[in-house]
Amino acid sequence: MSSDQKNPTGMTRRDLLQGVAGAAAVSSLPAFPMPALAQGAPFKVGFMLPYTGTFAKLGKFIDEGFRLYVEQKGGKLGGRAVTFLQVDDESKPESATDNMNRLVGREKVDVVVGTVHSGVAMAMAKVARDTNTMLVIPNAGANEATGPLCAPHIFRTSFSNWQTSFPMGKVVADAGHKNVVTISWRYAAGQQMVEAFKEGYAKAGGGGKIVEELYLPFPEVEFQALLTRIASLKPDAVFSFFAGGGAVKFVKDYAAAGLKDKIPLYGSGFLTDGTIEAQGEAANGIKTTLHYADNLDNPANKAFSEAFKKKSGQDADVYAVQGFDSANLLDIGMTAAGGDAAARDKMVAAMAAAKIDSPRGPISFSKAHNVVQNFYLREVRNGRNEFISVAHADLADPAPGCRMTS
Ligand code: PHB
Question: Among 137, 270, 319, which residue has the most ligand 1 atoms within 8 Å of its CB, making it the best to mutate?
């Protein structure tokens, strides 16, 4: 998928925003003079996700995974009918506060579900804190969101950037690689994943070194000069973070530059998750760590993969799982609250204590409200991200700076 590919929802940004206005008009029609809960006012879920740009497919799959769960519950969460609003955040941090304020202020959603991009998520977490809005983060890994910005009403069902890449440091060190180059986009996710990889690599004690850290601005995909640099440095291995359309192009360009068979490519699993089909042969052999793998052999994954394929016609990926689990978490909260989103304390307590049998394996939540889960070493074989081993079981983010942890 390239960044100029058509928005997979088939909607323009204006359509999405009009969808918000339209839905709000309908749901604000006066019904009977009864309290909101008694008259059955729906639970309003505001999706703030990228529906265009390099992360468009990621946003779409989160949205579809979430809706699949709600459909399986008869269109309800905690027994309460659900309505959806969508805002395309375009992965633009500079628009994030306005977009969030629109959902919270004008549309008065009960919960915001978003987003993919770490920089956008940090702005969202700030607004959620200022306005006491329930926020469920279904992807963005910004360590701060469940660190210094943590709050009782902020939950993350996906990962912290640290979690995804710390385990890879040991994998690369144990493989005996002594000289490693890193490459990523220069923004929170890329920088935090590279830092976590370096921490894991140093802690593994193999005595290797990071030869050079290469970056380019998000969401640029002109990799040629950096690939030439890698070729001249001749490291033993490369660690990378790219995702979505950018990851498709990077993996193809790496192979086309003749590096694929000379210098093994590693990364956090976003490099090949949801992108593998478009990468084709170029992805074969890439090893990554992530909290999901295509062939995880558990009943929840089997049922989920089949249902997602039936609904969307596409193979599930980690983003679809994260969307599905976000709805599951809110279902647990809304059930404990008796379907009343205003019963916030009950909702939060139940979500914090939730144990979910996810397609990725068992998950629970840390005191900082970040997901605790297994991280798997995977290898691309025959167009699939195949499970190799558990790289780190039950890994919790250390959550430095979060006041809820002490
Ligand atoms: C992020 O910006 O936190 C991010 C984006 C895409 C991914 C993973 C993390 O696939």
Answer: 270
